[in-house]
Specification:
- The protein has a single domain, classed as Rossmann fold (3-Layer(aba) Sandwich), CATH 3.40.50.
- 34% of the residues lie in helices and 28% in strands.
- The protein has a six-stranded mixed β-sheet with strand order 6-7-8-3-9-10. Strands 2-1-4-5 form a four-stranded antiparallel β-sheet, covered by helices on one side.
- Strand 7, helix 6 and strand 8 form a beta-alpha-beta unit.
């Protein structure tokens, strides 16, 4: 089975005036289908830059990135947007839900962008909410949900397109410790069902839920442990 993610000698240099800053200095790693990977490192280590590249939100200065067998390096912006929508699911620290929109409609958003018909959208969104333990909450607005429930809606939205990989950026950063445990328990359950998850976190207790931990420092990988 081929890797779902393969990075080869990825470098990212930012130009600021007449200064250059190398955020990534030659990063190589691959992720197999069904893995649960935590990317760790201090602020400025390169982990967020790497996550942006994985999410097709940024392009490397050099190196090669294969996502689900597709070389994304030379793709135009519209193709990158299509890949983001169809092959990736995103979970953010701040939930990023539409405040005046019911949970089920928040979950439907990626399907709207993908042109899925209304009836199928609703069926798939309800199934995704049930998958994350929110059956019966589909008509609640974010303000009527707890922080943990809002993050579950965000996870359902990430799942609804059946992506190749879920990218989670500090997914427990806005949650208290007991709710964080709940959310990480949900990620563990989803991973056991075969879903590939890559998560950025600076918290060792959160990273401990992952089966593999990749540690960044100064733009390089200094550790990769199971």
């Amino acid at each position: 089975m081929s890797d779902v993610i393969a990075l080869t000698d990825i470098r990212r240099v930012f130009i600021m005036g007449d200064q250059q800053f190398a955020a990534l200095k030659g990063v190589t790693f691959s992720v197999s289908p069904g893995e649960f990977v935590a990317i760790m490192g201090a602020s400025g280590s390169g982990k967020s830059t790497c996550m942006n590249i994985l999410g097709c939100l940024d392009l490397p200065t050099s190196g090669r990135y294969l996502l689900d067998g597709v070389d994304v390096g030379g793709l135009p912006g519209d193709k990158l947007a299509e890949i983001r929508n169809r092959r990736l699911g995103f979970v953010f620290q701040g939930f990023n839900l539409l405040a005046r929109t019911a949970a089920v409609e928040n979950v439907e958003l990626p399907l709207i962008y993908a042109g899925v018909p209304a009836r199928e959208r609703r069926t798939r969104a309800l199934a995704a909410l049930e998958m994350v333990g929110l059956a019966g909450k589909e008509n609640n607005h974010p303000s009527q949900l707890s922080g943990g429930q809002q993050q579950r809606v965000a996870i359902a939205r990430a799942l609804v397109n059946e992506p190749a990989v879920i990218l989670a950026d500090e997914p427990t950063g806005n949650l208290d410790s007991s709710t964080s445990e709940e959310i990480m328990g949900l990620f563990t359950t989803l991973n056991r069902q075969g879903i590939t998850i890559i998560m950025v976190t600076h918290e060792p207790d959160v990273a401990a839920y992952a089966g593999r931990r990749i540690t960044f420092r100064d733009g390089l990988i200094i550790g990769d442990t199971n």
